Here is the input.
Amino acid sequence: MTLLEEKTADTSEEKHVPFIQEIDEGYHVKIGENALHPMEENHYIEWIELIVDEMVYKKYLNPGDKPEALFKVPRGEKVSAREYCNVHGLWVNK
Ligand SMILES: [Fe+2]
Here is the structure.
């Protein structure tokens, strides 16, 4: 088992840092604020995770899906998101 390093700063043209929006039902998370991450067969976001206070919510994705997730969950004080790209690894919005 390998401990994955959380990356926080995008220096490439591909966008990996999760972008969180508060919505009426909870939170919407997309991968890339302005440009969405590819969702191709060999390069895609495997999952998006939302952490609200001490609760963790996760959505698994497949190639062809949109790189985003809608979490209909209660609002909290501390909110962050992580995602895993099968090529570029683990990213967090810190
Ligand atoms: Fe990627």
